[in-house]
Amino acid sequence: MIWIAAALLLAGLGFVLVVLFQDESDNTQPDDVITREKNGKAPAAIVEYLAENGVELPALIVNASLALIVASIALSFILLPLKLAAMAFVGILATAILLVKVTGNNRRAKMLEQLPSFINQVTRRLSAGTSVENAFADSVETLEAPLGTVMRRVVRRVHLGFDLHQAFEREARMNKINEFDMLATALRINEQYGGSIRNILDDIVDILRMQDSGRRELAAMTGETRFTALVLALMPPGIAAYTFADNPEFLTNMWNNAGGQQMLFLAVGMQVTGVLILWRMVKAIG
Questions:
Q1: How many CB atoms lie within 10 A of CB 112?
Q2: How far apart are CA 177 and CA 109, in angstroms?
Q3: What is the pLDDT of residues 88-133, one digit of tens each?
Q4: Which 3 state secondary structure label does DSSP give 29?
Q5: Residues 6 or more apart from 259 whose CB is under 8 A from it?
Q6: In the chain, at which residue ranges do the beta strands (DSSP E only) sit?
Q7: What is the DSSP letter of 176?
Q8: 63-96: b or e for each residue (b if 16 or more CB lie within 10 Å)?
């Protein structure tokens, strides 16, 4: 059994190394997602799922993560009893999905934090007489990730023949950020009917800053509620861990009994359901 586990781990490590050397031999730039869409090595379904959640990762990291997840699940079914392995399988998948959600939310929040200062740079260049496309292209040069990655992709699409508002509309769909749609609408109106795009962009900056101020105020007002939800979510697992550390025979006797196993599975199911309900409640007020 140990040899099988070691072989699986070595196979997973070998897969990661193969992907690493393949990725190093590829000359694609890190932020060139248009090229990665053509030459990417990650499974299309996984890349699409990550994109729907606002996460962009190199093919190396995606494939390495998949290898680790598969190896962990395989080891769980080899080394653990079937029921525990099934629980570990659900736990591993739930953890991976949670990490994707958290990463995507953090990435969106970071981009929204960078967006007002970026638009301010664009308006300053517009005031100097630069065209709209050149103002965006020049402002991208010193912009850091993650917004810098997105804006470089926007500029690249414009160079490939897209209209600026079309490039922003595509990014709005990919990253699920409504503020990009707002920018795209402003640019489309300016392209079709003219007017002062600089004034419109200044108004958008004011709106973004008002939204950020409102989010911060709401987070401060709901801080106690969020902390309470966190305590309620962590208390049952904490009590179970303390009980197992203080009196391991209590839980092992329950697990060795058919009725005890049913009670434990019921408790885990109720805990997961409660955490999901609390998460939805906190998300609704946030």
A1: 18
A2: 10
A3: 888 888 888 888 888 888 888 898 889 999 999 999 988 888 888 8
A4: coil
A5: none
A6: none
A7: T
A8: bbbbbbeebbebbbeeeeeeeebebbbeebeeee
